[in-house]
Fold:
Amino acid sequence: FGIEQAMIFLSDAPAQKLFAVASRGYESSGVGAEIPIGAGIIGVAAQARTPIRIGHMTSEYTYGRAVRESVLQAGLDNLLAIEIPLPGLVEPRSQMAVPLLAFDNLLGIIYVESTQDLRFGYDEEDALVAIAAQLALSMLHIQQPQETPSIAAAELPIATLVGAPVEVRYYRENNSVFLDGDYLIKGVAGAIFWTLAQDYVQRGKNVFSNRELRLDTRIRLPELSDNLEARLILLARRLNERCSYLQIEKCGRGQFHLRVDRPLALLAADT
Structure:
C-alpha cells in the first residue's frame, strides 16, 4: 500500500495502557514505548474500539516531544530515565489507528501516519481493518496455546560466559530493570525478566515454559488478562535491541531458551 510509517501496539488492559512491539519507517523502533488508553488517536481508537482516520495536521493527536516537555515542566524529569521515546513524525499530516479486535477483546492497535494530507482513504481503512481482524485472531490463538504440562522442558547446555559481569539491577516498586545502568524494561515484563535471571543464576535453569511462568507467584500476572505472550514478545524485542549477550529464543511449543553469554550479577533494590 506504499505506507512508509507504521507501528503495532499491544494492549495492557489492567494498566490501561498500550505498548509498542513493532514499527517501521523510523530511526528508532520505540519498542516498549507506552501510551495511555484514551490519549491521542491511538489511545482513543483503543478506548472506542473503532478505526479513527485524520486527514490533516492536528496538534491534539501528536505525541513524543509534547509528552517529554510536559514531564519536564512538571518537575518529573526523573521519570524520563525509564521512558522509551515513542517514534513518530514531527508533523504528521495524515494518521490512522485501527483496533486489533478478536471476539470483542481489544488486543492492540495498528497505527499508520504520513507527511501527506488526506493520505489514507476508505480503501486503506478497509484494508487495514481486514488485516487487523486476521492478525487479532492469530494473536488470540497464540495467546491460548494448548500446552502439555506432562512434558518437562529439557535444559540446554550453558554457554561459556566471557567478559565482565553484567550488573542486573531490579527495583521492586515498579519492576524496572537496568543492565549496567541502562534502562531495559519495567512492569510485568520486568518481573518476568527478573524471575528468569534469578532462576538462571541460582539454579542454572535456562529453558522455561509459558505454563510455568503463568503459575509463578513471583511474577504476579493479572488474573483477568495476563497477556503473557505479548509481554514475552516485548521483552524479547527489547533484549534483541539492547544487548547481544542476553536473548530469548523459542525452542519448542510453549517453551523458550534464555541465552546468556556474559556473567550476571543480580542486585535487587527496594526503591
User: Anything to note?
Assistant: The longest strand covers residues 105-114. Residues 64-68, 76-81 have pLDDT under 50 and may be disordered. The chain is about 30% helix and 30% strand.
